[in-house]
Amino acid sequence: MITKVVSVARWEYLEKVRSKAFLIGLFLTPILMVGLGVVPTLLITQADTRTKVIGVIDPSGAIAAPLADLVQARYRLADGSPNYVIRPLAVGPAADVQSAAAEADRETGAGEIEGYCLLGPVPEADSAVEYRSKSVGDIQLVENLQQAIRIVLSERKGLSMGLDMTVIRALNVKVDMKQVKLSKTGEKEDTGFLQVFFTAYVFLFMLFLLIVTSGQLLVRSILEEKSNRIVEVLVSSCSSTELMAGKVLGLSALGFTQIGFWALIGVIASLSFGIVLVTPGIAALLIVYFVLGYLFYAAVFIGAGSPLTTEQEAQQVTSYLVMILVLPIALAFPAMQNPDATWLRVLTFIPFLTPTMMALRIPIQMPSLWEILGTILLMVVSIFFAMVVAGRIFRIAILSTGKSPKLAEIFRWAKEG
Amino acid sequence: MLKVTGLRKEFAAVVAVDGVSFEAGNEEVFGLIGPNGAGKTTTIRMILNILVPDGGTVTYDGKGFSDEVRNHIGYLPEERGLYRKSKLLDTIVYFAGLRGMKRAAAKAETLRWLGRFSLEAYRDRKVEELSKGNQQKVQFICAIIHDPSIVVLDEPFSGLDPVNQIVFKDIFHELRAGGKTVIFSTHQMDQAEKLSDTLCLINRGRVVLGGTVRDVKRRYGTNSLHVEFSGDGAFMSALPGVRRALLYANAAELELETGANIQTMIGAMNGKIDITKFELVEPSLQSIFIQTVGDSNAAAPPVEAA
Prior knowledge:
The complex is a heterodimer. Chain A folds into 2 domains: 270 residues, no CATH class; 131 residues, 3-Layer(aba) Sandwich (D-Maltodextrin-Binding Protein, domain 2), CATH 3.40.190. Chain A is 68% helix and 6% strand. By secondary structure, chain B is of the alpha/beta class. Chain B has 10 helices and 13 strands. In chain B, the strands form 3 sheets. Chain B has a 6-stranded mixed beta sheet, with helices on both faces. Chain B has a 4-stranded antiparallel beta sheet with strand order 11-12-10-13, with no helix packed on it. In chain B, strands 2-1-4 form a 3-stranded antiparallel beta sheet, with helices on one face. Chains A and B meet through helix 1 and helix 8 of A and helix 3 of B.
């Protein structure tokens, strides 16, 4: 009994682990994840390494010079050289703003300057300042520039009101807002909004790809066995229970290979580049949900896939399951804004959504203990029932060829066994 | 030894197998013959426990089906049952393992059989890269590698060239000499006649003829005329005293009515065709088959079997 199960498992594992689809998923996913998640986070939070030249068009002629001095003094790169250099482009009341802006556009396009500031003619007014550049995503630069302009303007205003320069300086306090996420236990974690968002995204996507890759491999192999009559050889060699147990086991080994490989990449990334997406505790909890979700969906794919007879039907069924799996991705934003929402909790207790919802929620805000224990229990029970039902369908379905059975017929198999 | 008693299977409203009984002994090559859709494959699937019969029993060396029995049966399905993308050696070792063989033994046996079929060079090739005939050889190895006592082969000769048919035939005889039961199905009567010791003719799900090949042929008596000739032999079917004629390009098998006058026949043939051989023989299985099946089919419309 056991040796045949192991035989099937070994075969399923080795044949699939060598398949192109699996290898692509295995290697491509981390690359994709790095591309989607880590790189933008790094780019946003990373400090500049070279001096950036910023043009200024100042029709009043009063701002450009003090701004250049202030920026020079205030922002430095790690090696001590100035972070930004202000290049006055058109200064004074006689300046031709139009042609200066056109020239600045060209220079920006050619990469000679990072971008340029377009100031208003009356600096004291609370006028809007425009910053024009090729990329508007450089949050750090915009924030620094904004702060510098504000200081210059407030100094001018202060002087005109007769205040002493030292007083003005004292009023201009530099504030750096650092975001700190608090976990339930009150521990502090140094993570910003974006990082939390990407982390949730990364895990959701990993779980999704994990399930879909092996689910598709499984359905395709069952289809081949059915269309090729291999299944007759199999079923005359071992019982359908042994066959299914072997498939689930082999598939699980496949999943764990994938999870293990990704975890390894995660560990290497955190050790060598200092990229830490989650703490080991959270990672362990996520792996628990990965495993539970994987097993549950293995049963779902067997139950839903074994009655099929054509590749088209398989694609259709897979796409329905994909829709269920990606649903939490659509909920990522609202979930981040309001992680305590009741509807999130309710969705988390639907077995089809539990693993993905948890993969989404855990990096955002650790759910309460009762939710974690409750969903784990729910998943264990669901996996048991899903396996029983899948086994009943599988036993009859693998030998049915020709027309795919009707849904009512499949329900009857599932009920009667 | 395999004993089938009163086997019955219905699909929807169609009775595919209707009370089939036969016995295939040890040291015996048993031919299960019949036209397409007669119920051969359905019978075989019930023997292998792939389908559960609606009635009747199958015993293997006197015992009912069990997990133990699985390891002593070998099976070659009608349509090819191999993983297309998998390597030869891996595939055979896997199937052997499923029949309870240890991996090391399975590998050694696989290499031996691949050698016997001159397929060693392909051991690490994918199944789909092989010709149909070679795939059939691989399938055959999968059926016999674990030294089963009962070997069931569904249409083993399809896609096989004459040279390899002889290789298969030799192995049939080796298996028989080793005390095994070899059961094969075919709709090609000449193969059944050449290969089997015992046969069972199924038509429309029922056994219409059975016994050793010798018995069956003797039962039909020496009332056939085998003629080899050159020329147009079409007229022969209309000759007086000929009940039925099987006409080939340069030969004919004429089933005679009792008391037919052979001298008159020779006279009638003279001048029309150039006779090279003229012999009074037992009927061929082909002739018996057409006679038996043709008679029973005339009574009812054909039945589709699954």
